[in-house]
Amino acid sequence: MTITTTAPGKIILCGEHAVVYGRPAIAVPVSQVEAKAVLIPTKTKFHIIAPDLKRDYRLDSALPDDPIASSIKLTLAQFDELPPHVTLQLTATIPLGRGLGSGAAISTVIVRALAQYFEQPLSTDMVSRLVFEVEKLYHGTPSGIDNTVIAYQQSVYFIKGRPIQRLRVKQPFCLVIGDTGVVAPTHIAVGGVRERWQANREQYEGYFDDIETLVRHTRVIVEQGISKPKALGKLMNENQELLEQIGVSSPELERLVQAARQAGAWGAKLSGAGLGGNMIALVELAQADAVAQNLRQAGATDVIISQIE
Ligand code: MEV
Fold this sequence. Notes:
The chain has 309 residues and is an alpha+beta fold. It has helices at 67-79, 102-117, 124-138, 145-152, 186-199, 201-224, 229-245, 251-262, 288-297, and strands spanning 3-14, 25-41, 47-50, 55-58, 86-92, 156-158, 165-166, 173-179, 267-271, 278-283, 302-308. It folds into 2 domains: 3-166, Ribosomal Protein S5, domain 2 (2-Layer Sandwich); 173-308, GHMP kinase, C-terminal domain (Alpha-Beta Plaits), CATH 3.30.70.
């Protein structure tokens, strides 16, 4: 019996980084990209094949700092089981290390595949918790937003440590997601913000408060139906400015943000941890292709047009 599980990518609409400090953030799943696990029972020891991650090894020879092995081991411990004789094939169309939640999505498909293998029903909350444990091992001080939006496959208004609040998107809207192609590990951006926050708490708490205000406004606009896309775009632009001030933007991100605005986007900002990775632009559906084209001309290595519902 072969088991297949999938999980989507994600983007953060607003509130990244401030969410680590207790402020709310909004994240939405991106179903155009996914992580996939295929678990095949065999007669030999647990074998992991992950070509996108350039990995091919046995579980018992995994290095201690390997997130795939950690996801497997935490799940086995949860079920009180020994490593089964299986081959686990992992693939991802989510670009790795670019703010689209590849790490949380890969952990999610592993947890779900093993739960099915052992016929252990796992609530979505439990999946999210297990993935959060892995995130904590590799991302320093994660808020838990990535594992939540990806495990639930739902748009969320997220506050660290609080029960999940679903975001009701009254009227679908269109985002163009542009990839700088720059790999930027989350823990570096998050760790940099922490250092600067420690050195200048008052100023950073002020930035985070300003981000909180715009996240709350964004929620109202999205839940009431986007009759005012310009207002939502303005909030995204303000969020980008604050992200620049806290030091997580980059020249590549800013070039793409400018290109999107020049092509008529209502607003644009980096999305996720920053320092590279992806940016997002709010666009009228009819303009999505033009914005996508401008992003490519400005150096985007990949562009996704996503309807948020
Ligand atoms: C990463 O997708 C979002 C950050 O806010 C980190 C986190 O919340 O764990 C940068």
